Structure formats: structure tokens, C-alpha cells
Amino acid sequence: MSNRVYIFDTTLRDGEQSPGVSLNINEKLQIARQLARLGVDIIEAGFPITSPGDFAAVQAVAREVRGVTVAGLARANFKDIDGAWEAVRDAEQARIHTFIATSDIHLKYKLRKDREQVIEAAVAAVKHAKKYTSDVEFSAEDASRSDVDYLARVFGEVIKAGATVINVPDTVGYSTPEEFGLFIKAIMEKTPGIEKAVVSVHCHDDLGLAVANSLAAIGYGVRQVEGTINGIGERAGNAALEEVVMGLYTRKDRYGLTTGFNTKEIYRTSRLVSSLTGMPVQPNKAVVGKNAFAHESGIHQDGVLKERTTYEIMNPEMVGIAASNLVLGKHSGRHAFRDRLSELGYELSDEELNLAFARFKALADKKKEIADQDIQAIVEDEIRHIPETYLLEYLHISSGSTVVPTATLGLRKGEELKEEAACGDGPVDAIYKTVDKITGLQCVLVNYAINAITGGKDALGDVTVKLKCQENEKIYIGRGVSTDILEASAKAYVNAVNKLIFDHQPKN
Ligand code: KIV
Ligand code: ZN
């Protein structure tokens, strides 16, 4: 059996199904490019039949991102499969991923089909997909709650029909590691022709066991793991791929397996996904959390200073968290700034570098020492990947315990400077009402979150907002960074508004 585990990333499909997450095509492309740099083997770019936007995003990823397999999801029917193929056909390597549920509970209440009808639909779907591509994955939705003998029959039939990957999802995150491992063992033993397919797992995290279940399954011969960056996804999310991969890497002694991951790209990928989805990473999150490598207790600090491995089983550089000795400040020049950016993995065009450097200089006037996280935040804030219809030109706020909060704002739209003022319940509310007056758009603020990038009174404030468009009910996420939290709040709102406008523009 091969000692290579294939990593199937579904951040753009199952991850995007996280409540309140919606990515536009440019954001999906940005994430897909970074996933390719990270070294995932397969990118599930979306579920093309669900909307024209999803179709266009899958097609764009298939056409542009090289060095990976691009998969499109399809239910087990011809219309979905035709749509998925149209979307992925231009990929370097295209995969159709088709699925149907196999548990009695799904058959009875959701599909209203009997077991034989499900086998028929699954086989027909795989045969139809096979006309388009040799690379066909079949998933048995809710597999972990299915009767194992029936499941083995389904898998045997779809392998006969041409499926090259069979996937065992723990769709509702119900399994436990010992149980799931033995379930995989039974499938391996009972499925006719299993040696012709790669066996895959897809675990959800409802009981917090998705990574443990995935690793247990690998122990029984699974060679493809599906999951997402930061573990985002439906409900409690999916298996966090960075945790699965670092588990295999750190415990090579136990598993003896490899992946194609460039682990040094993990942190950057995690930040990008968090920033574009507006889903913060909890500080104590394994591998990528802010505290994952922080040693607080004196005994631990002493141990790490004497010998790192006393309390560190992975080192931060391994996952791309730079241990920089170089602190940048107001005397640092363009050259040092550019070097630091490239160490952090950013390749900017000259124009982008100019913008980022100007922001860096402005920040250095306010903040004595600029940390790597500050640099990452200003670059991500400055380099927007959608047209900026409105740009914040100036902001004036009057607020206090005895006055009505009032905002006056200037937003540039092309050549024109549009100015307005409004009162609100607080200064942020006043700013947002003023932006609405200028743009004439009806948006509902559904979420506002503020975070300090580093410690200290001069820390950058990082604001994320989620707006709901009244017209199509879609959520738009905006982000703004500034040492002035009201300015960061305004920028975040304007960023979300620009995304909404971009989404409504006709695309050719
Ligand atoms: O959780 C699940 O069962 C899925 C399938 C479509 C693979 O996401
Ligand atoms: Zn899923």
C-alpha cells in the first residue's frame, strides 16, 4: 500500500457552507492559488449546479490554478454531473465528485428511495461521469450511519462502474475514533474490488472528533483525507487539514506516511482563509492559533529556553510562523520592508509594493515597532482584489457622553468626492448611516467584530463586518485595519459595500 496520503481540500465548497460565509470569485481564486502553493492534491472548488456564481468560480479555478486536481461536486443525477463537468473540464486534472446518501434514515426521510434504487442511481451517476473523465469520486453521504454490508455493496458496484475514489463521510460528526477505524476496516474487508480505488474519509466535527477520526481511518488504510483550512464548514465544521497534516508529520514515527504539503505555507493559508471568510481563528486552536506556540508558565519558558523540545513538539517555523529577530520601525527603508515581505511569502507588484510601503511608513509614525502581524495586516488590507468603487477620503467624528454621535464622511467615487453627515446611536452607527446615505444602498449590519493585531496601546485595530444585502439576502464581508478603530470600522464597511457593488455588476 502506498505511503502517500492525498489531501483533498473542500474549503471552497464545504467550508463556504459555514453559516455567514460567502466568497466572491476573486476571493475564491485567491484562496485556490494559495491552496496550490500549500501543496494540496485536490481542490473541491464548489458545487457548480447550485448557482451561476458557484459555476463561474469553479470554472475560474479550473482554468487558472495549475498543479492540482480540481473537483466539482454533483448529486447523483445527470444534470448535476453535466454542470460539474462543464465547470471543471478545463482543469489540468479534472475530477467529478458525485454523491448520494446511503443511511436508512436519509433514504426514508430525505430521498424516499429504497436501497436498490440508491444503488441504481449511484451506478448510473458514476457511469455518466466516467464518460467525461477517468477521475471520478463517489461519496456515500452519511456513510458512518449506514449499514456496513449495504455500504460495501454500494461501493463494490460503483467501483465496478468506474469510481476511482470512494469516500466515507461522517456527515453528521457522529463517529468516534475506535468505531470509525473499525468501520473502515470492515469496508476494506467487505467491498469487492476495493484495491482498485483510493479510499477516502470526510469527517465533520460535531463532537470535536473530525481530526481524530480521520487519523484513525488512515491507520486502517485510508489514503485520501478531506477537510478544510481552519476546520471551517457546515455546523461545527470539517476536519482541519493543517491538524491532520501536522499530526502525520509530527508522528511520522507512528504513521510512516507523507503528504505533498509545504507545511511552511500553513500559517499564511490559515490567515488568508480567516481574513476572507471573516471567521476568526480561536487563540488556542491547534497549529495555527495565536497561542499555539506561546509558553506562559515560568517552568515551561525555562524549559524551552534550555531545550526547545522540552515543551514544543512542532516548531513554529515549520508551519510558517516566522521567528524574526528583525524589528522594523520608522527608520526602516523600502529595501528592508521588501525583504521582510518576501520572507513572509508575499510577492507584490511594484504598484502594490508602493501602496503597502506608504501604509507601512504611515504606521511607523504612530507605532514604534512594527511586528510581522502588523505587516501582514496592512498588506492584506491594502491589496484589495475587487474594484474599489468607493474609497474613504476622510472621516470626522463628534462623539462623547453628552453629545449626539455624528459622523461626517468623504467617499471618493472616481473623480467625484461625495460628502454627507449623519447622527447615530454611537460613532460606528453614525459612520455606517453616513455611508448608506452616500451610496444609497440598503444594507443590514449583521455582525461587527474588532480585534487588536498585537498588544499595546498603539496596536492596529482590525475590524470585520458582515452586511446583508436586502435585495438578494447575501452576506458580504468587509475588513479594515487602522490604529484608529473608527477609521478601521469605516474602511471595513466600505470594503463590504464595494464587494456588494462588484457582485451586482454584470460579468462577461
Ligand atoms: O458531509 C458530507 O457528507 C459531504 C458530502 C457531499 C461529501 O459533504
Ligand atoms: Zn461535508
TrEMBL record:
Mn(2+) binds at residues 14, 202, 204, 238. It is an enzyme of class 2 (transferase). InterPro entries: 2-IPM_HCS-like, 2-isopropylmalate_synth_dimer, AIPM/Hcit_synth_CS, Aldolase_TIM, LeuA/HCS_post-cat, LeuA_allosteric_dom_sf, LeuA_bact_synth, PYR_CT. Residues 391-508 are annotated as: Regulatory domain. Its EC number is 2.3.3.13. One of its GO terms (cellular component) is cytoplasm. Residues 5-267 form the Pyruvate carboxyltransferase domain. One of its GO terms (molecular function) is manganese ion binding. The keyword Transferase applies. Catalyzes the condensation of the acetyl group of acetyl-CoA with 3-methyl-2-oxobutanoate (2-ketoisovalerate) to form 3-carboxy-3-hydroxy-4-methylpentanoate (2-isopropylmalate). Homodimer. This is 2-isopropylmalate synthase. It comes from Desulforamulus aquiferis. The lineage of its organism: Bacteria, Bacillati, Bacillota, Clostridia, Eubacteriales.
